[in-house]
Amino acid sequence: MMATDRKRIARTFKSRGLTIQSTALDALLNVLSRETHDETLFAIIDEIKDRLITGGGPGGNVVTTSLLEEVVAELSRDAKDVTDEAVQLLDAFQTPRLEFDATRKQFSLLDNASEKRSLYGKATDKVGL
């Protein structure tokens, strides 16, 4: 069964204009043993073709183990991974300073990058209250 799967997958890649390395084929068989074969295989092949078209790369049409690992990792991301990537901590002292102009009703970027920031206002800020 394993040999027929190897031949079928290699033929599928070849019919799509790709050549798969034997180590990448072994890794792909490992992935496909845990998933539904055809749907997953075609999704992986489509993503590989997209990456090879956009990336160009020196490998041409050869599917390597590293490329296959990247594609499988990308396709197997779940909602928790996306949420973890979306949450970032930003340092308030490193972000650009903005000032709101009430007459224009828009924000403008302040050029005081060299000025040291403080959590507390200046004396003039207290008078302005």
TrEMBL record:
One of its GO terms (cellular component) is epsilon DNA polymerase complex. Gene3D superfamilies: 1.10.8.60. GO terms for molecular function: DNA binding. GO terms for biological process: DNA-templated DNA replication; error-prone translesion synthesis. InterPro entries: POLE2 (IPR016266). This is Uncharacterized protein. It comes from Thalassiosira oceanica.
